[in-house]
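To assess whether the prediction recovers the assembly geometry, we first specified each molecular entity separately, as shown.
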Amino acid sequence: MREAQELHEATEEYCASPLEDNLFEWHFTVQGPPSTDFEGGVYHGRILLPPEYPMKPPNIILLTPNGRFEINKKICLSISGHHPETWRPSWSIRTALLALIAFMPTPGNGTIGSLEISKEKRQKLAKKSLSWQCDTCGKIVDLLSKNTVKKPITEEEQTMLNTIALKADDSPTSDTAVNAESNAENELRQRNVDSTPTENQDRQQSDVIINQQVETMSSSNDLFWSILIASLVSAIILLVLRRLFLV
Ligand SMILES: [Zn+2]
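The predicted structure of the complete assembly is given in tokenized form:
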């Protein structure tokens, strides 16, 4: 697996490797981004690859208490499993980890798996994280490299990170952005609401069609019987008349 090799060499920022007995579960370690509440912290977690990976995005679960994401819960990044629509098959586990680091200082805005706690508590957790241990990997601080040069970020990764930066700008401080976002959300919701009646209409229409079919069936049945009865009656009348005139 190309990615296992690529990520095997730890950098200062992150490292990740698959479990020995399961290639679909990886454990990763990321460095808290500098000049944020998470500076100096080291955070460990699991990456669960769906069987369809890389067509579908990985799920990310943090294990180290960090104050930004709930632990032991699939977290919501716009590139993770909760938002499969934003994922691109050309992205990788490295992309997901870069996104995770970029997401850490952004406001949670109540998304799935997000926490809003004070700067002081986050800084305390960052210090505490240095002594945190993973049951599988041991002391996580030792997993990150101290001196490896950062791997340069590719153009595509930069584009992805810019999207995250844009999302981060949608914080409650800029009203227009929030409005734009909530408008977009409303629009989406509206679209969802709109789509439901259409479905209902479709269902109703198909019901009507079925009813019509049943009606035509029953009416053609009626027609058949009335023709049969009419012909029987006329046959009887013919016989009676023949009897009358021939005698
Ligand atoms: Zn681990």
